[in-house]
Amino acid sequence: MPSTANVGPQEMPRNLELVNLLAARNERESIQIAVRPKVSWGGPGNAGVVQVQCSDLCSTSGDRLVVGQSIKLRRVVPILGVPDALVPLDLPVSQISLLPGETTAVWVSIDVPSVQPPGQYDGEIIITATKADAEIPSQCLGKSEKHQIYRDLRSCLEMVEPIDGKPVDEVVERLKSATTSLRRVLLSPLFSEFVSYNGPVDMMEEDAISSLSVRVKIHMTVWDFILPETPSLPAVFGISDTVIEDRFGVEHGSDEWYEALDQHFKWLLQYRISPYFCRWGDSMRVLTYTCPWPADHPKSDEYFSNPRLAAYALPYSRSVSGGDAAKDYMQKQIEILRTKSHWKKAYFYLWDEPLNLEQYESLRSIASEIHAYAPDARVLTTYYCGPSDAPLAPTAFEAFVKVPKFLRPHTQIYCTSEWVLGNREDLVKDIIAEIQPENGEEWWTYVCMGPSDPHPNWHLGMRGTQHRAVMWRVWKEGGTGFLYWGANCYEKANVPSAEIRFRRGLPPGDGVLFYPGKVFSSSNEPVASVRLERILSGLQDIEYLRLYSSRYGRDEGLALLEKTGLYQGPERYTLEHMPIDAMRGEIFNACRS
Question: Taxonomically, which superkingdom (predicted)?
């Protein structure tokens, strides 16, 4: 099944086909394997256990995409009955319990390194019905299984024998590949009584094995395009530091606190997202910062110079007491950062959706303080209306369009809600007409509670293409950045493993794009949602469209969206996956060297 399918427990089986994938270098491509038991072979309430075994993807010239490094498997777990959480599975072999009459999905992700040689890669995932807690007579192993072990051991030798005089990088890669092959041998049925986590696994008689195994063949074309390491579109996503403090029991400013924030920052970079930490003050004032360490700390340069980070937020807090000391401190921080080459990535996000004249005036006042130290500083403001008590124009939309004129020069990034546009995409030109790019101004957009169905957004239960279409919309409308208010804003809890509850008053999934690992296992690593993976896919689609437009012009890029039926407007985009493959295939054919 494609990555845009929502594979629920009642998903009916269909014919198994060869999986055909296309990926650029530095890109992640994902598919899903839906597994449904025809009969039960397990205990009461359990259809039975399947063993899922994954091979490397290999090219004819001997290059590999290695299981555990490039290839990851995760189980799709429902949240409020909707398939969403992606819980990691052991590699290269793991076991899954199936429920009678229910479909279970496995999410397969393949990350292609930037240095991967282009070519055709093949591999397979073998899913075998097994009996847990049974003895395994090793003589039950058939000739094909023995031959596979023989081939794996031989390939280990072939990988490590010719390493004399090779560069260190190549030796490391060869050892990693050999390790993977050896691990696969150790996890083969022959040794399962020694390594099985759920007791020994009975792989049954040879003739039974072939009838109880399903082989999912995967073919991947890796092409020469390399997705830029620094995302072309800054996508800045908020992480609530107070949610982390409460749930993980870490005290603000403690070593454990820095460690928790550092883990979240690094983990989110893989999604082409530029994270910022945040906490809300009165009247939607917001304190935002990408790096928890001060500007003169070595970590600051490490964070801000990271090529995967497209933009970073700097904090600006007026201290309630000792105002001058706080101001001096902020001035020094800004002075240090302005000397750095990464300063062009910096922005200040001070107020979330100001509503009235008092809030707009406060925002202007703080921004003017910042611009007094740093005239070239960028201030970002999110808004969906002008000040309600001092209308800027006769109608609400006209007043909204006039906000840049009202806020200038106190804002450089005008970040507007997609909800305001409704299905009137033609209104975009009115917004853009008010922005002055020649003076360093930018137009970004955001989604939150709105827009609602059928418009693109990231709420739980929306269609897969609806999630992915958020970024198609950004590209078509011509915004140069995107903001999302929160990725971990679930209800407060005081233990890491507490059940996830979405905030009352918000659509399910709004403000939550990943889950604490401890909810599902003993791991501390965050668990991604299906929606977060689709956000990554949308951001990767933008790189494809940018490549195509750089060769053939933006008008041709827009024509391609129309021609493939991918995206025409917030109520007219594909519900099926096929146009996605068509768009990517067209770009591959037109742009490959």
Answer: Eukaryota
Q: Residue 375 class from Cβ within 10 Å (0-12 exposed, 13-18 middle, 19+ buried)? A: exposed
What percent helix, strand, coil does the chain show, rounded to 5?
35, 25, 35
Closest-CA residue to 507 (of 537, 462, 466): 462
Nearest to 381 by CA among 391, 399, 366, 369: 366
pLDDT in tens, 304-334: 999 999 999 999 976 333 467 888 888 999 9
CA atoms within 13 A on the CB side of 399: 17
- Predicted TM-score of the model (pTM): 0.88
Q: How many residues does the chain have?
A: 593
Distance CA 100, CA 108 (A): 23
Convert the pLDDT of each residue in 352-388 to its tens digit. Answer: 999 999 999 999 999 999 999 999 999 999 999 999 9
Structural tokens at position 27: 């890109």
Closest to 388 in 3D by CA, of 415, 339, 346, 353: 353
400 closest CA partner among 378, 415, 380, 379: 415
The sign of the CA dihedral 4, 589, 122, 169 is negative
Q: Which two tokens stand for residue 271?
A: 């999604």
